[in-house]
Amino acid sequence: MTVKTPSITYDTALDRDTRDLYAALTDLVRLYQFRDRNVICCHDVSVTQCYALHALARKGSMTLGTLANELMLDKSTASRVVETLERKGYVRRTPHPEDARAVRLDVTAKGRALHERVERELVAEERGIMANLDPEVRRAAIGVVRDLARLAAARVGREAACCAPCADEA
Q1: Nearest Cα residue to 52 out of 102, 104, 87, 91
Q2: Quick one: which H or E segment has residue 107?
Q3: Class of the CATH-defined domain 44-154
Q4: DSSP 8-state class, residue 158
Q5: Contact partners, residue 143, CB within 8 Å, separation at least 6
Q6: Collapsed DSSP state (helix, strand, coil) of residue 93
Q7: At residue 46, what are phi and psi to the nearest 5 degrees?
Q8: Contact, 43 vs 90, CB < 8 A?
Q9: Can you give the pLDDT at residue 155?
């Protein structure tokens, strides 16, 4: 069965489910971005700075290039994020032990304390959401979200981004 909308044709259940997933994830991501911004802005850092702090706290020391990849930012943007975090005393740069051209980024005690405070607030909000779900649904939701994240991460960078109209659309 084919269902037509003004611009999209759904030929299969997979097509419909894919479109429904896209809509649901778009809504969820938008809500979480606003939630993150509203919580994080009260703590002297931007959302991007908080994500950088989170990456360093969770994964440990790394180079600027590794952090830029982790945040999916270009190196110059990541550098500006780190400069601000360093100026505020949340991150420190030290010489890289194996590469004289690189620096190692580490979270300071002050940065770790901030990360833990923000994470506590966000997890408390999450607990309020999870409390409304049956335990089986909670576990299933966690598994589905992890699987989606893993599959999406595997696709990042595999296909060239197309900002201009693609050849078949021109």
Answers
A1: 91
A2: strand 103-107
A3: mainly alpha
A4: T
A5: none
A6: strand
A7: -85, 170
A8: no
A9: 85
* Of 14 and 8, the one with more pLDDT: 14
| CA–CA gap between residue 137 and residue 154 (Å, rounded) | 25
163: Cα separation from own chain's centroid: 21
Helices (H), 12-74: 13-40, 47-59, 64-71
Q: pLDDT-derived band of residue 156, with 50, 70 and 90 as boundaries?
A: confident
Q: How far apart are CA 46 and CA 53, in angstroms?
A: 10
- Boundaries of every domain in the chain: 44-154
C-alpha closest to that of 81 among 150, 138, 97, 73: 73
CA terminus-to-terminus distance, the chain: 29
Predicted local distance difference test score (pLDDT) of residue 102:
85
